[in-house]
């Protein structure tokens, strides 16, 4: 309850002030001349001025408001280390009980430090605290009790910039002199050409240790590729090779010390996106035909493909008197292409090629060896494949997945994706394949062949093989037993999916990871992980997912499409996850590749002490030298400049209140004011009459 005096002038205030000034002059003159009755006249004038001001006694009925104290609990990954979670929970319970005993103090518990979106990098406690106090006026803020290991990454530059005036008390978990090793990525490339060597610069830090050298293992996509010895504090350049397109994940793991705090930050991850230099494709057309331009247009439409195309218009055996300089713009450089530079091509396509003496037998030996060493060949066969000039009658037959029977089927049919093809990534989900018959145009020629190796993924007339895929040692071979794919490209009978089919076929031959028949991928989507398994089998085994802290979970996959299985796994931690079916392993990083949360995990007071001292708070450990948890007492203080002492911490209480009502008692209104004025006037008249 608050008492005060208020006024409600009956006349404009300037007019009243002018009248008061005149009255003051008159009273001064009267007292100077020592006139009779001057005091009574002065009293009458004062009462008159007061009556014009209409003073009143005002009583405010106020209800005191509680002061708001916040307990910020750090639930970040570094707080999950042994002993820290237990200490945090025990301290939280003790503080909650002690704050509940304080009068007019309201407690807010803020759980912070764990990011559910997967986008934050580091422990953010102050942002969460500010969000929790958004509805609290600054004058009601009592202070903050923060339970953390001290590794906080959003500490304000000053208490003033934070916007709340109250002491910060930090209760540290963990021990004072902890030992920890970690790897710091100083510089890493984001992109690299496939086949090139990039350099990653790393630094080994041994905090609290004996600063001894340590061995670091290098892994690429979970396969160990090397090791180096690192000296603490020195930068080390590590060369890494980009082996394939897409994401190449490199792990660098330092050997663990038996007494170190944790091994979670002994590993650093670098993801380098492999970019293929323009793919070099050699297209050799045996003769001009209607489908020749289909291959050329498809390959030329891709800006990442460098195409070398030769069409053999005239065999060397033909003699018609045409001058040599009129036969072609340039001579067919067979020796250069098939002997000296054959390994520079990513793919060789033979389009209706027939042996005519242009390529000697020795060059076919080179092509066979090129395939075995990791090269790729696509044969688009026409009637040439069934006659005596067929490529199957060369040494190339060693790597071909099918042998022609010599029969050419000239009849209309629709290409079908067979049961195996429905599961193969090259032909799975082709537009129009789901209907029966397939919703694409007919073809009219098929080269009959008997498959010896490989996988038939499409069939034609009389269920004969149409598209056969094969792996030979390190290389790959594809055999398309028809030259009528151009009918789809020309939109005959509404055409067909020639673009997706031929593009996937070329990328499978060039070993694109997304088109592997047997593969497992792991993809991060926010705070979820998508485990995807491609297989030609009917069933898949469960997958084991390993978290950054080493926890494992067995996941059963659900069938999405033929040959494609998937599962969604919540990602409760940030860092590098792995998924394995026992044979294949995939990696994915949730959040930053090298999160700040794991970069330093030792308990420290260096980051929060300046803020605590500026707010007249304190920093203390919950347990010294591994002893029992010691939680300080909490007291409410008012008007202090220090809020901490031995065994206790203080919170700032305020006089904040809310107005519930106002009572007013006018002093010069009604009979009371009239009686005072008449009384003083009568007394003045009486005094003047004597």
From TrEMBL:
Annotated PANTHER family: BLL2462 PROTEIN
Transmembrane spans: 12-32, 39-57, 665-686
Keyword Transmembrane helix included in the entry's annotation: yes
Protein name as catalogued: Glutamine amidotransferase domain-containing protein
Keywords assigned by UniProt, alphabetized: Membrane, Transmembrane, Transmembrane helix
Coiled coil: none
Naturally occurring in which organism (per UniProt): Rhodobium gokarnense
């Amino acid at each position: 309850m608050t008492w005060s005096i208020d006024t409600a002038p009956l006349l404009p205030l300037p007019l009243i002030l002018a009248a008061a000034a005149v009255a003051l002059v008159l009273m001064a003159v009267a007292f100077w001349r020592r006139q009779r009755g001057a005091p009574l006249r002065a009293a009458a004038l004062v009462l008159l001025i007061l009556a014009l001001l209409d003073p009143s006694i005002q009583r405010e009925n106020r209800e005191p408001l509680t002061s708001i104290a916040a307990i910020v609990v750090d639930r970040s990954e570094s707080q999950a280390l042994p002993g820290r979670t237990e200490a945090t929970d025990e301290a939280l319970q003790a503080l909650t009980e002690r704050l509940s005993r304080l009068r007019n103090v309201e407690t807010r518990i803020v759980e912070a430090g764990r990011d559910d979106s997967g986008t934050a990098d580091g422990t953010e406690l102050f942002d969460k605290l500010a969000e929790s106090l958004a509805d609290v006026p600054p004058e009601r803020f009592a202070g903050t009790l923060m339970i953390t290991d001290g590794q906080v990454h959003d500490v304000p530059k000053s208490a003033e910039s934070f916007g709340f005036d109250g002491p910060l008390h930090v209760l540290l978990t963990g021990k004072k002199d902890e030992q920890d090793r970690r790897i710091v990525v100083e510089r890493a490339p984001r992109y690299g050409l496939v086949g090139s060597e990039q350099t990653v610069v790393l630094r080994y830090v041994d905090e609290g240790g004996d600063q001894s050298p340590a061995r670091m293992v290098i892994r690429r996509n979970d396969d160990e590729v090397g090791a180096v010895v690192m000296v603490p504090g020195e930068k080390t350049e590590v060369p890494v090779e980009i082996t394939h397109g897409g994401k190449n994940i490199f792990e660098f793991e330092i050997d663990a010390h038996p007494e170190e705090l944790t091994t979670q930050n002994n590993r650093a991850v670098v993801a380098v996106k492999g970019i293929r230099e323009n793919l070099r494709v050699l297209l050799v057309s045996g003769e001009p035909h209607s489908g020749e331009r289909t291959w050329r247009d498809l390959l030329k439409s891709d800006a990442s493909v460098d195409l070398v195309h030769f069409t053999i218009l005239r065999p060397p055996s033909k003699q018609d008197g045409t001058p040599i300089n009129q036969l072609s713009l340039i001579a067919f450089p067979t020796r250069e292409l098939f002997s000296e530079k054959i390994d520079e091509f990513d793919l060789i396509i033979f389009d209706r090629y027939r042996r005519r003496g242009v390529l000697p037998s020795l060059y076919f030996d080179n092509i066979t060896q090129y395939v075995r060493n990791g090269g790729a060949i696509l044969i688009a066969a026409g009637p040439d494949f069934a006659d005596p000039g067929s490529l199957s009658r060369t040494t190339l037959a060693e790597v071909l997945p099918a042998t022609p029977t010599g029969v050419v089927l000239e009849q209309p049919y629709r290409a079908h994706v067979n049961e195996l093809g429905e599961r193969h990534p090259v032909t799975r989900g082709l537009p129009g394949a789901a209907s029966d018959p397939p919703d694409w145009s007919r073809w009219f020629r098929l080269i009959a062949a008997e498959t010896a190796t490989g996988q038939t993924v499409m069939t034609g007339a009389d269920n004969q093989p149409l598209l056969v895929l094969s792996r030979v040692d390190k290389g790959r071979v594809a055999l398309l037993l028809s030259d009528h794919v151009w009918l789809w490209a020309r939109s005959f009978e509404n055409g067909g999916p020639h673009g997706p089919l031929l593009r996937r076929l070329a990328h499978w031959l060039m070993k694109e990871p997304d088109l592997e028949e047997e593969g497992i991928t792991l993809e991060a989507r926010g705070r979820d992980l998508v485990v995807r398994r491609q297989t030609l089998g009917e069933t898949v085994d469960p997958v084991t997912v390993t978290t950054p802290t080493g926890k494992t979970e067995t996941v059963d996959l659900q069938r999405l499409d033929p040959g494609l299985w998937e599962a969604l796994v919540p990602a409760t931690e940030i860092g590098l996850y792995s998924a394995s079916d026992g044979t294949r392993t995939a990696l994915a990083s949730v959040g930053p590749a090298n999160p700040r949360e794991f970069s330093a995990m030792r308990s420290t007071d260096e980051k929060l002490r300046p803020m605590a001292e500026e707010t007249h708070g304190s920093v203390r450990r919950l347990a010294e030298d591994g002893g029992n948890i010691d939680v300080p007492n909490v007291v409410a203080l008012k008007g202090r400049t220090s809020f901490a002492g031995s065994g206790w911490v203080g919170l700032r209480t305020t006089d904040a209140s809310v107005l519930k009502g106002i009572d007013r008692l006018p002093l010069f209104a009604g009979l009371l004011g009239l009686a005072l004025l008449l009384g003083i006037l009568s007394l003045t008249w009486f005094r003047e009459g004597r």
